[in-house]
Design a protein that fits this description.
With 475 residues, the chain is of the alpha+beta class. Helices cover 39% and strands 20% of the residues. It folds into 3 domains: 284 residues, no CATH class; 112 residues, no CATH class; 58 residues, Arc Repressor Mutant, subunit A. The termini are far apart.
Length: 475
Amino acid sequence: MEFEPVIGLEIHIELNCATKLFCDCPNNPGDEANANTCPTCLWFPGAAPRLSEQALEKAALLCLGLGAELQPRSAFDQKVYYYPDLPKGFQLSQAHLPLSRGGGIEILDEDGEPRRFRIHHIHMEEDVAKLVHEMDGRLPVSLVDFNRAGAPLVEIVTEPDFRSAHQAMEFLKVLRTQVRYVGASECSMETGTMRVDANISIRPKGTDQMNTKVEVKNMNSIRHVGDAIAYEIERQSAAVGADEAVVLHTRLWDPDKRVTVSMRGKFEGPCVPDPSVPVIELSPEWIEGIRARLPEMPAVRAERLTREHGLSADEAGMLSTDPEVAGYFEALMGAGVAAKPGLHWLTTQLLPAVKERQQELGETPVTPLRFAELLQLLAKDSINANTAREVLGEMFESAAGAAEIVAARGYAQISDRAELERVVAEVVAAQPGAVADFRSGQGKALGFLIGQVMQASGGKANPKVVRELLVGLLG
């Protein structure tokens, strides 16, 4: 019997708010343990939660950015379970009346065709504390860090529309980009601001039946999500093929052994309305005010970049995955840089240099205007590509402009034909073997001779003029 997988995702995203969801404690989970706590997030008797307006606005922006419909009324419930990271015995979450319903994301399927995957709902909830397990030779001890307790989260619950690991991974990539665009979260799985659970089951291909699912947690990269889904599909298929029952439970992904391992049975505790947090009522005017704050989303931006700057669909799509990079590119265009060389130098030279120096693009001293000046010198043949790379490196260390650095260092390119004719003639005279190779049809000899001229000129010769002069002289 042939099986097909049925996969749904639950994506937890930490909102980049200044404070926690229900108190004024700083939302900085990485600070010194238990530094950011108060009676509310420690849930002392009598402490009253107060919903963060900023968290509500960022969550609403996220929902609208994913095409979801904000609900006029939403409310928090007490999701009951008992675990040391939640000492009050319940988590405040929107189980019955979520913030939004619907929405979805379009991706390219394995066959290259567009396909839309649906979102069931998006709700807000508080994060739990962090357990720290000490195993340093003493008796094992588990400690609790409450810095993360009460951090503002949204959970995105998809429909079980996915049929492959590829689809789930592509969905997460596009979702991450969309959320970053609206400015609601950094969505980093490595640092924990985006966490993904996958619910996986299998069924006979071509049927509509729903079978017992297994939830896989503890995946800290999109690649791990794909690997865990692929492994679980094989594991469940083998189990069903051997007449073994698939039991509802939670599993963890072990990236070293590349297997899922059993964690615990699936516990569903009671979930009751919370009396301490008022019902959230959103007016149509408030919703439209939030909608007006939405930026141009990636697909729309990619289409415009293609139309306005002549980029290919792949080029525009690649640029639009990162709003900061796309914004930098558009600033270059505004400064008069041609699209194709601007894109090439941005992606192959500037971005690697920024990463090498462990900087962020928005914080680098090489601003779009400074970089545009360098590219314009290159376009005018005032400098060659090798010199442009040298100048770029110096621009990270100096506040001087590109033209100023070129003048101070004597980097200006030599394009004077009379001067270059003299250097070319000297190189040709000194390299009879390479000249003979070129005249016998060995194309590599021309590249060697150009290199010799560049070396003789201290790297300042205009390589286009050098090529013309060599071909004219030897042809």
